[in-house]
Amino acid sequence: MARPKAAFFDFTCCEGCQIEFTNYGDAAFLELIKHVDVVEFREAMSEKTTEPIDIAFIEGSFSREADRKRLEDIRKRAKIVIAYGQCAATAGINALKNHTKDYKEAVYGKDALMPHLDSQKALPISAAIKVDYNAFGCPVNKYEVLQIVSHLLHGKEPVIPTYPVCVECKRRETVCRYQEGDHCLGQTARAGCGAPCPADGIPCEACRGFVDGPNEAALEKALCSAGFSKSRAQEKSRMFAANQRRDAK
Amino acid sequence: MSTATQDIKIDVHHLTRVEGHGNIVVDVRKGKIEKCEWQVPEAPRFFEAMVRGRHYSEVARITSRICGICSVGHTLASLKATEAALGIHISEQTFKLRELLKHAENFDSHVLHVYFLAAPDLLGAPSVFPLVATHGEVVARALRLKRLGHEWGSLIGGRTTHPTRPVPGGFAALPTVKELQELKAKLEQAVPELEATLKTALALAPKFPAFDRPTEYIALSSDKGYALYDGEIQSCLPDGKKQRYAVADYKKVTNEYMTKLSTAKYCKNKLDSYAAGALARFNNNYDQLHPEAKKVAQALGMKPVCGNPYLNTAAQVVEIVHSYHDSLRLVNELLKAGIKDEKPAQPTKYATGAGGVEVPRGILFHEYSYDQDGMCTAGNCIIPTNQNHANIQRDFDKLVPELLAQNKSESEITLALEMLVRAYDPCISCSTHFLDVTFI
Predict the structure, then answer these.
(1) What is the pLDDT of residue A3?
(2) Residue ranges of chain A that CATH labels 3.40.50.700
(3) Cα-flanking dihedrals φ and ψ of residue B357, to 5°?
């Protein structure tokens, strides 16, 4: 792909994945923009375009019916759509409210019915449009993003990990959190981050969501073995994987 | 046709070069202002509903996700609130490391705002990308400084977007003495970059628009130093009169109310609106700035109480210098004491507590209640941009008639309003998660 036109778009999210794009430093960033022509990026640019684009990076979840048309317009203009970050890929943390009914009242009280506060279930953007690739993570792994872009530039299929975080812990010889008397979600969490948290003594929270076909019952059993109550073990993975659980709404 | 009688229609949908989504709508018919609004249509995300039923060890991980730019500040405010609620007392080492982390975030975010979001307006460019060709060295310097802030914060926090290492009671992992020595060397090597930043700021300073609307300024304040990580709430009025409040009493200061213009709530204290952010900190705590930062303020022609909101960006330059020098002090003190392998402090009770920190955009409050199992029963977050929305609207109300009286064109008025909003460095996705949860 010769110097593709790339654009960034944001929906329901914290925009932290866009910020990661500014953390490469001068050498990598200036090299990257030699190969990619960034034509729209609202958080950093005033320039806008209605022209066709080669790669659309879409950040954020689909949580308002009103956003569907904007997503469809981007899809029509874009050759490749990348769900950029966990909110776009699975709705990530935004989906943590999906199993509750009173979230509007809980936050806005008597003002909850004001029309501009309308919000539905938080869904991945794939609920509205076709997605070609997912850059998982909360936030994205900025080096994995470089790799995805590099693969596309070279006409190769990007490789997105489908194995769990445990594999990466073994690879870097991190002692298992369960061995330390702690808990962890690494068994069912999608890898690709390099497993920095368990190496720091922090349980994996599955911020890249679940692997495909996670064994949730085994996860809950392991959490109970680490001293969790049954209800807490059942609730634990809702934080980042609400939409991938067997009880997803 | 002269502007005094002309029709002006400004409809900036999803203002660019700000975090989150905001609209500017101005409608002037025959010189009469029919509408002049700062609107916040950001999709609401309901964080306070999300934390209910979650364990105290998870709460900062969740509320960090309110904002990608100030996730360090959200994490720290959240930890402080949880620690207050659970009677957790942190060590001096933890306190200093958190101060160092807080400095890293303010440095990092201010570099991003000054160079990438604000400077293009002053250089007449739509974004930083065309500046690569015309001001290549400035852009490269900005990227190097941004990277420095990122590496500095990552060393203490694990990463800068949604930090992993800070946990209730302390840190899950600590930097080594060798890593702190490397950070010190990196900071020391950045001196020429800071000097060049100041030179760029001085060259651009005359381009800041002249506008004056002194308001109430709210910031954390402490007798121990220029407050970022810790302090009490302080109000500074246009005449310089100050008053302090306990962080636990934050609701007496924020007084939130709902408006049709915004998914974020408005705030007011003594006046009709108030400002939070770098300028509010500058106006409240000028005397405690590092001497080098004071020199920068003097070179930029700034002194408290400064009533020009456009100079919030200049106050950020002053703070970049302050955070740099105060961090060198902290690193030296930490190195002198040596890094002790401390485990996080544990809860001594389960109740309700509030915490406040200064994030780049201003004062931030979190408050939580926990049950006897350490599970969260209620949460409340009041974000600085949310505290600024009403003040931005009041600035619009004064500025637009002034610009009309000066016969400014529609495009000049649009730019002036866009620049005004950008000067506040708003973090709009942050600002749409408030509420008044009833605390049990």
Answers:
(1) 92
(2) 5-153
(3) -140, 165
Q: Are B168 and B19 within one domain? A: no
Is B437 contained in some domain?
no
Whether B405 is in a domain gets the answer yes
Residues B16 and B156 in one domain: no
Q: Name the residue in chain A with its Cα closest to that of B67.
A: A14
- Which of A14, A63, A122 lies at the smallest CB-CB distance from B429? A14
Write the CATH number for B191: 1.10.645.10
Same domain, B7 and B150: no
State CA A92 to chain mean position distance.
Answer: 6
> Under an 8 A CB cutoff, do A17 and B144 touch?
no
DSSP label of B222: B
- Domain with B20, as residue range(s), is 3-39
Query: Can you give the pLDDT at residue A108?
Result: 64
Together in a domain, B129 and B214: yes
Query: Looking at the 3D structure of chain B, how many domains does it have?
Result: 2
Regarding whether B190 and B112 lie in a shared domain, the answer is yes
Give tens-digit pLDDT for A111-146: 666 665 566 789 999 999 999 999 999 999 999 999
Per-residue model confidence as pLDDT tens digits over A87-111: 999 999 999 988 887 766 666 666 6
pLDDT of residue B430: 58
In a domain, B329, yes or no: yes
Low-confidence residues of chain A, pLDDT below 70?
103-119
How far from B428 is each of A148, B19, B277, B352, B434, CA to CA, in Å? 29, 6, 14, 27, 12
Distance from CA of B343 to the nearest CA of A (A): 11
Q: Hey, are the CB atoms on A117 and B44 less than 8 Å from each other?
A: yes
Are B30 and B104 members of one domain? no
Tokens coding A226: 């680490």
B22 and B98 inside one domain:
no
Mutate to test the interface with A, among B19, B25, B50 (most CBs of A within 10 A): B50
A200 contacts B16? CB cut-off 8 A: no
* Residue in A23, A63, A117 closest to B146 by CB: A23
- pLDDT, averaged across chain A: 92
Nearest CB to A12 within list B43, B68, B435: B43
Which tokens go with A93?
Answer: 């943390």
Report the Cα–Cα distance between both ends of chain B, in Å, rounded: 62
Low-confidence ranges of chain B (pLDDT < 50): 1-2, 433-440
Q: Which ranges of B255-363 does DSSP label H, i.e. alpha helix?
A: 278-285, 291-299, 312-337
CA distance B281 to B251: 19
What is the three-state SS of B365-392? Answer: EEEEEECCCCEEEEEEEECHHHHHHHHH
Cβ distance of B160 and A108 shorter than 8 Å = no
Q: Kindly report the nearest CA distance between residue B394 and chain A, in angstroms.
A: 22
- Which of A22, A99, A234 best probes binding to B when mutated, by most B CB atoms within 10 angstroms? A22
Residues B29 and B144 in one domain: no
Q: How confident is the model at residue A112, as a pLDDT?
A: 64
Shortest CA gap A218–chain B (Å): 21
Q: How far is B297 from chain A (nearest CA, A)?
A: 27
Check B146 against A197: CB less than 8 A apart: no
Instruction: Work out how many CB contacts closer than 8 A connect A with B.
Output: 184
What pLDDT, on the 0 to 100 scale, is given for residue B263? Answer: 66
Among B95, B265, B283, which Cα is nearest to B171's? B95
Q: Which pLDDT does position A111 carry in this prediction?
A: 66
Helix (H, G, I), strand (E, B) or coil at A52: coil
Is A81 within 8 Å of A75 (Cβ atoms)?
A: yes
B408: left (phi over 0), alpha (psi -120 to 50) or beta: beta
| CATH 3.40.190.10, domain A5-153, yes or no | no
Domain annotation covers residue B440: no
